[in-house]
Model the fold of this input.
Amino acid sequence: MTHPLRLRSFRLLFLGRTVSAVGDAVVPTALALAVLRATGSTTALALVLGCAMVPRLLLLPLGGVVADRFDARRVALATDLVRCAAQLAVGAELLSGTPALSHIAAASALGGAASAFAMPTASPLVAGTVEHDGRQQANALMGVTANTSRLAGPALAGLLIWTAGPGWAFILDALSFALSALLLAVIRVRHVPVPRRSIRADLVLGWREVRSRDWFWSSLLAHGVWNGAAAVLLTVGPVVAVDQLGGEGVWVLLQQGGAVGMLAGSLLAGRLRPRRPVLVANLGLALYAAPLLLLAVAAPAAAVIAAYCVALAALGFLNPVWETVVQAHVPPGVLARVTSYDWLMSLGAMPIGYALAPLAARAWGPPAPLAVAATLVALACAGTAAVPAVRRLGWSVSAPPAPAAQVPAAR
Done:
């Protein structure tokens, strides 16, 4: 097997994703602290996060169709340029000294819309630059670089916020998208042509591919609950950290601990090959209940950070494992559409978490939404073990499966 980094196209793809991951890793911490510093309101933070998430969710299925129909490389390049412009706008707004929440929300919505077309390209880009036997290692490498960036991101965000100001975090992210686009412009990615159909027919075929695989859609329901719980932690967690656990530095350290866990999990994913990969990975996600419960009772900061580190290690393990299994079991011609539905179902609960968590925290206090989220995530993720297809699924199939159902091509 040729090591993925010996392949020029994957090597440049890997470099571009690494650069953009560094920029992206700075933004979540910078955004949370900047909005809270400017407004002091979790509702304002939830609004900005929701403005990025809602257009992303609405446009994801269309993004999958576009990525399957056209060259995933070109789609990814165009979305990098749009996200570069969006992050420049947010950075300029924050650097102005009088940031308007509406302007930040609008730029976040533009970036969210672009990401709806970018996210379905990730799996086809790997599958189009690396052969089947090298994809687990390639996906693990992508996870390692993303999580190494997350490790440095919170610290870099804190440095930028406390020295130059949060606006520079977004300028850095914009520059990273520009460099990623430049690298995408010079690589080659295999593309599997698909028959020309109507957009509706393409959407229906993609959904049938999802619905035909019990292991897939049942896992996505659990992943959706996990992300809804993550939204609760991201909106209520900063307030608990600042008010009860020691200040802004605790929140930065919490994010840093999560990045360490993600990195450890992705490194493990490159070496460990359990016989039932999806079952093991889903059970690991149930560990996210621990930091939620510890935040709910305002446990010592060290305990919360340690639990968050372990929980994010499980996520770091799941991501490369899940991507490798999906690339093996889903035909290349529908991979982007299936990936778009994957993201849609996985992230669909996040706006609900963003919207309801602040309301519940105001009505009953922060412990209430955190405890409810912990209970739901434990039940949903561990509950996938009850699905026979999840328990039986291995790494690959003997031959590439045919699409679940053919939809007549558009005339």
The chain has a mean pLDDT of 83. Residues 51 and 109 are 5 Å apart (CA to CA).
